[in-house]
Amino acid sequence: MADHISDAVVRRLPGYYRHLRELEQEGINQVSSQELGARMGQTPSLVRQDLNSVGGFGRQGYGYDVTRLKEGIGHVLGLDHTHTMIIIVAGSIGSAVARYPGFLKEGFITIGMFDTSPERVGSTVGDMAIRDMKELDRFVADNTVDIAVLAVPASAAREIAKQVVDLGIMAIWNFAPVDLKVADTPVKIVNAHLSDSLQVLSFLMTSGEIE
Amino acid sequence: MADHISDAVVRRLPGYYRHLRELEQEGINQVSSQELGARMGQTPSLVRQDLNSVGGFGRQGYGYDVTRLKEGIGHVLGLDHTHTMIIIVAGSIGSAVARYPGFLKEGFITIGMFDTSPERVGSTVGDMAIRDMKELDRFVADNTVDIAVLAVPASAAREIAKQVVDLGIMAIWNFAPVDLKVADTPVKIVNAHLSDSLQVLSFLMTSGEIE
């Protein structure tokens, strides 16, 4: 059933997961679609529809068990197992990803960091050594790497994406300001464009409300 | 007309802007809805519909003038004027935002950076001095601050959001992993949750395709 979830629902699931984690931290065990919708700024009927599409979890008149629902969504999102990541390169965004404690808490473990700059290679970000890009092939051969985080300039993104796909890495989290696509492969790519959300804020400031 | 653009269209506009900038850099002057749709992974009819809702820009049979369309979307997004930003605090994400050259290119100018940590206050990120949070009130009184970038832990986010709103800042770009809302004010808030897009990637790796 998780194979047939719409793009819009998938994009809302991390929000449900975050709010359910907060409810759990607040010691709340049960939540209704009304309450969850109010927290998320969505209608109760959209909440019920979204949660039905990932497997239900609710009981008519009783609402949702917070922990069970959180774990159910975590399972659909693949957060009930760990993922290993490498980060290319160790610039400002790559370093922020390496240092951000939230990813590790959700099971995303950075196991390597790579750069081409002689000033960076050999130094560290937190506890993580910055390796030479020349060692990438060997590292990927010796370690299970689930995700390559690309934090490279736009001009280098397509070439490095091709390189990591050729090495057999099956998922790319791309911060370069280009939309990466790798045609005719089962490689999964998500583009994380920081500018996009800043531009949405700028829109709201300039052109008013979103309908 | 920009007042009546749906949330989904607004979220796609930065993508159009990015692709049009790329086309411009490639020296391409005219683009059809077919070509633009192919680049963005969308149908030509959705492209025409989206662009109509922000004001047209196309001519039947001629397609779109790349520069004119880019500038038109830039205008709707408010990218034809500059915005000043302050960043709170100077941790990994705050520092990445301060260092990232793309924001400045799009007219988002960081004019101040604040922290509470005695180790950080007085040092710099790039050329930017890190000021004491105690100076925030005075700084906001003395300078025009359009946007507060919150890169604080979840536990501090709501309190600091209230503080910047009380100081009269009208827009918040929030990186803390909570959904900030400020009720009953015209303050604009966009939540940028890095984990969300990583979780979408994890979903794709775990549960397969999005429909």
- How many DSSP-defined strands of chain A? 10
| Tally of helical runs of chain A | 9
- CATH-level-4 superfamily name of the largest domain in chain A: NAD(P)-binding Rossmann-like Domain
Q: Sketch the topology of chain A as an H/E string, one letter per element.
A: HEHHEEHEHHEEEHEHEEH
Helical amount of chain A: 40-55%
Q: Whole-Å distance between the termini of chain A?
A: 32 Å
Task: Give the largest chain-chain interface (CB within 8 Å).
Answer: A-B, 69 and 69 residues
Overall structural class of chain A, as computed from helix and strand content, comes to alpha/beta
Number of domains of chain A: 2
Would you mind describing this structure in some detail?
2 copies of one chain form a homodimer. Chain A is of the alpha/beta class and 211 residues long. Chain A folds into 2 domains: 2-76, Winged helix-like DNA-binding domain superfamily/Winged helix DNA-binding domain (Arc Repressor Mutant, subunit A, Orthogonal Bundle), CATH 1.10.10; 83-196, NAD(P)-binding Rossmann-like Domain (Rossmann fold, 3-Layer(aba) Sandwich), CATH 3.40.50. Chain A is 45% helix and 19% strand. Chain A has 9 helices and 10 strands. Chain A has helices spanning 7-25, 33-40, 44-53, 66-76, 92-99, 101-105, 136-142, 154-166, 194-207, and strands spanning 30-31, 58-59, 63-65, 83-88, 108-115, 124-125, 128-132, 147-150, 171-174, 188-191. In chain A, the strands form 2 sheets. Chain A has a 7-stranded mixed beta sheet. In chain A, helix 1 packs antiparallel against helix 4 and helix 2 packs across helix 3 (44-53). The relative contact order of chain A is 0.09. Chains A and B meet through helix 1, helix 5, strand 10 and helix 9 of A and helix 1, helix 5, strand 10 and helix 9 of B.
